[in-house]
Amino acid sequence: MGDRLPDSPDFAVDQAALLAALGRILPPGRVYGEPEDLRPYECDGLTAYRNLPLAVALPETEAEVQAILQLCHRLQVPVVPRGAATGLSGGAMPHHQGLLLSLAKFKKILKVDPVARTALVQPGVRNLAVSEAAAPYNLYYAPDPSSQIACTIGGNVSENSGGVHCLKYGLTVHNVLQVRGYTMAGEPVTFGSAALDAPGFDLLALLNGSEGMLAVITEVLVKLTPKPQVAKVVLAYFDSVTKAGNAVAEVIAAGIIPAGLEMMDKPATHAVEPYVKAGYDLDAEAVLLCESDGTPEEVEEEIAAMRAVLEKSGATSLRVSANEAERLRFWAGRKAAFPAVGRITPDYLCMDGTIPRKRVAEMLTAIAAMEKKYGLRCANVFHAGDGNLHPLIMYDANQPGELERATAFGAEILELSVALGGSITGEHGVGVEKITQMCAQFTPEELARFEGIKQSFDPAGLLNPGKAIPTPARCREYRQTRGEQA
Amino acid sequence: MSQVFEQQCRERILAAAAGAPLLLRGGGSKDFYGRPVQGDIVDTRSHRGVVAYEPTELVVTVKAGTPLAELEAVLAEKGQYLAFEPPHFGPDATVGGMVAAGLSGPRRAQAGAVRDFVLGVRLMDGQGQVLNFGGQVMKNVAGYDVPRLLAGSLGQLGLLLEVSLKVLPRPVAEATIRLETSQAKALALMNQWGGKPLPISATVWSDAGHPDGEAITVRLSGARAAVAAAQAALGGTLVEAGIASAFWAGVREQTHPFFAGAGGANEPALWRLAVPSTAPQLDLPGRTLVEWGGAQRWLVSDAEPRRIRETAEKAGGHATLFRGPAAARDQAFHPLASPLLDIHRRLKATFDPRGVFAAGRLYEGL
């Protein structure tokens, strides 16, 4: 326990004074300072990293958020915003010298406008709740991360969340029109607008994926999308991951943009099948899920085209969902991949590298070699259409050395992602988890610009410090170690 | 060649003295846009060519001085295109200028804007340092999204050297239909259609007083079956393919008759109003052309700028003086609220601490 944020500057905060001042802003029951009350907030979805904050605050109104930020700005207290804490990179892990600002009480859907096709929501509203509120109008909110039952819109904006349909429908950044909130100094700010653009630099683009480091979000205007009349998914099985990887490229080459294009390898289907009983073929080395949506005529035309390409690419067998229930069952397996793997191993690390699609087979071959090198198993689920790979490295934290081996395994995958022309993270964020690998992807000059962007919004450096941007010292050390290895 | 160009640019940046800033420029096709600025021109047009293009990755990387028309021809050979249909405004338009100007064409409401397709940039900052942000992959949340920040930054933050763009396959089928209707009715229709799963890729309403008459023109793009079904559902008159293609090019490039006689000397100004698509018909004098399902309204008017801005703001949007005399363009863009302006100034200082790149194209002193 304790200092897990070596990239943060040191702050000297008087906990008693902070709690007393917070008590003047919020009623009892919405400020916590006792260790047993702080404990539930010690980590997010990345449970390997934990920290107790000095205090937790649960504001309900924008005025309270503003007053808390002004207070913390005055007292020089670091602030970590938190939504549902489903994040997988430690972005919402508390600062041990700071305040954990929970936006959990901001859970109102303020307005669904079926004519403008927008929803105005507070940041604590769950992703799926937006689609549910829009459903009576045959509209939905397109980005659908696997955690959509639990994760919130504020967190989605902060991480620029994706999902299984973003090749066709975009990421969070493509589906958010406007974000309102406060700077660390407590000034109200509006990024974007209810129109399709706003004057000046595109600050809204910076907010998306900013990991809670630029502003505290209190309201989000999202775009709603008309529900397609029909959707069907093709399951295509392959006897090698290389063939499956090539089939992905062939689908795109045929001019098709599937609504979803996902891949799972054999270990992943084996973990998933007993859990959800989707009916996957367990002998196949890889399965592709290729979805088409649109009008009935359009889907029929596209499914036929997909079938032809997949067959030509060497699929050993194909299945098309016969009805909506079957389509959802086929997807259930993919969407439940993380919990399913969680059932067969005490612990796992989920990686999030992105690579050019054509390098998929190369990456999977390398991962297979790493399994031997580190003596750990790995299941692979893959947003194939986006080149976004989620290797799930299985380990047991109670076995001495396994966490360290799993971490080294993950680091090697991320560094290979960069070497193959990709990125260390496609949708989960850097947080504390991948802060070292930022040194692999960016030069000191590039990292200095990130720091400059951070300071442009938060000159005092108090909002979620020590995350996402490594210190120059960390990168010097990283390069030295790498240099020695090479 | 690239190294020579980059070396020359670095030398000019390092040598640039205070008070003699550099003006970053491609083909100059959008010189009319934004506040008038002065500076020693850095011409990017010698820095051209496709760096990497793999159609199955849906990504192309090009040097910033590449002519936009050349890039579009390369993509067309593989049946792909830039889905945001950027305007060229002249044969010399470059890819770097396209990103820096951040302007999108008729398909914007459906497909997205330039910023939605910029995946990566190679940039030279105000200290002559070469920086790479983003990459050649669809999904990338490592570090802040600088590539999208640069879309529409009008050369204020750095010299674009290379850009990576997401590209898409061209739609298999396209059809354009036209329905005669008033603006109010057209706005209602556009919003109503927008809520349905129809393959609409562009809409225009324009007023009487030019050959098209008062009508809404709708382009449908997608699978053959979907286009045919939508055409039957929407009704109207089918516009012959050649005429339709010329019409959409005219709207995109502002050669459509609506744009004639606007923005020049002794002519009324051309304004671009970005408003929520549901904003009712705006109470402003002049001629109007509506695009983007109601979200973009072009206005040819000699009304007071203040009145136009207030009207746009009241509708929930903002107004840009798109084409007009230099004196009026001193306030081309909608004013920013103070915390945002402060953030803009600090971002400028981060990327260009010595003020090497001619300031003021967006806002005075920025």
Give an overview of the whole structure:
- Chain A: Residues 49-227 form the FAD-binding PCMH-type domain.
- Chain A: Pfam families: FAD-oxidase_C, FAD_binding_4.
- Chain A: This is Glycolate oxidase.
- Chain A: Keywords: FAD, Flavoprotein, Oxidoreductase.
- Chain A: Its cofactor is FAD.
- Chain B: It holds the Pfam family FAD_binding_4.
- The complex is a heterodimer of chains A (486) and B (366).
- With 486 residues, chain A is an alpha+beta fold.
- In chain A, the strands form four sheets. A seven-stranded antiparallel beta sheet of chain A has the order 15-12-14-13-17-18-16, sandwiched between helices.
- Helices cover 37% and strands 19% of the residues of chain A.
- The two termini of chain A are 33 Å apart.
- Chain A is globular.
- In chain A, β5 (109-113) and β6 form a beta hairpin.
- Among the domains of chain A are: 15-102, Uridine Diphospho-n-acetylenolpyruvylglucosamine Reductase, domain 2, CATH 3.30.43; 230-338, 2-Layer Sandwich (Alpha-Beta Plaits).
- In chain A, α8 (241-253) crosses α10, α9 crosses α11 and α13 packs antiparallel against α14.
- Chain A has helices spanning 15-25, 35-38, 62-75, 127-134, 153-159, 166-169, 203-207, 241-253, 266-276, 296-312, 324-335, 337-344, 360-374, 402-419, 438-441, 444-457, 472-485; strands spanning 31-32, 55-57, 79-82, 99-102, 109-113, 118-121, 139-140, 176-182, 188-192, 216-223, 225-226, 230-238, 260-265, 286-294, 317-320, 347-350, 378-383, 388-395.
- With 366 residues, chain B is of the alpha+beta class.
- Chain B has three domains: 2-169 and 344-351, 2-Layer Sandwich (Uridine Diphospho-n-acetylenolpyruvylglucosamine Reductase, domain 3); 173-257, 2-Layer Sandwich (Alpha-Beta Plaits), CATH 3.30.70; 261-331, Alpha-Beta Plaits, CATH 3.30.70.
- In chain B, the strands form four sheets. In chain B, strands 13-10-12-11-15-16-14-17 form an eight-stranded antiparallel beta sheet. In chain B, strands 3-4-8-6-7 form a five-stranded antiparallel beta sheet. In chain B, strands 1-2 form a two-stranded parallel ribbon.
- In chain B, a hairpin with a 5-residue loop joins β6 (118-124) and β7.
- Chain B starts with a helix and ends in a 15-residue tail after the last helix.
- The model of chain B has no long low-confidence stretch (mean pLDDT 95).
- The chains are: A alpha+beta (486), B alpha+beta (366).
- At the A-B interface, β9, α7, α8, α10 and α16 of A face β7, α6, β9, α7 and α8 of B.
